[in-house]
Amino acid sequence: AQSRRGELRHAAAAAAALVAAPLAGHAEGSPSLQEQLADLQKQMVEQQRERLEEETRTQALEQRLSDADAVVARGVVQLQPEQGDGASFPLGLEDPGALSEAFLSDNATLIVAAFGRDGPPVAARRVPLRKIKFPLPFLLTTKDLLFPLSPDLWAKDSRNTDDLAVAAVLSVNGRLSKPTLSDRLGFGVSKPVKVAGVLERSEATLKISVKVGREELSSSDFETLSRVDNLLDAKDLEA
Q1: Is the peptide bond before 135 cis (omega within 30 degrees of 0)?
Q2: Order of strands, edge to edge, in the sheet holding 164-171?
Q3: What is the pLDDT of residues 190-214, one digit of tens each?
Q4: d(CA 167, CA 189)
Q5: End-to-end CA distance of the chain
Q6: Which residue from 100, 83, 86, 182 is spatially nearest to 135, judged by alpha carbons?
Q7: Among 21, 60, 157, 182, which residue's CB has the most CB atoms within a 10 Å radius?
């Protein structure tokens, strides 16, 4: 019995040592693991914010230097996490692979399109996901107008001075006309505003969070989106 009690005391001492070991580095006044993680997350968000501000400034400068390309719509695309309220990710996720491994494909693409109050998109652009990080500032300019629109026609078009809905699509295969169950959407509105007497566009915030949830399209939707896909194919060939 005495031997058994000795074994129990030895086991208790060993257990106490195991419990104390992880706490040894957390003396009073030292940050806990949760505090360290929170600090790391705060640093990541700050890096995101700095990168977003720098990319937005660069984009605006490039646009000002290109007098021929008027802005059709502008904004920022964010990736919303699937779980939680997003409070820990105020600017969203950086890597779309965190939402689905399907977005790691070479064909995975971000497609941004602007719409008037009715009808097909007036302008669109697509970018391979492997080339970008989020949040992503974007500009749709008269370079991105879809046929039959041209810069001259757009200048006279009533939609030029109206609100434009803007959609952002994370597409696994880069084809609007061939959606997958992994594809996701986000929406926003870019409004016409006057700055120092000059017509500008407000910044739309597109928070991508909605799953497409279907692989089948109506015949009319398929026709419209196939046309957009084909027009974007032609633009890629011209680039």
Answers
A1: yes
A2: 121-128, 109-115, 164-171, 184-190, 210-211
A3: 999 988 877 889 999 999 988 887 7
A4: 9
A5: 86
A6: 86
A7: 182
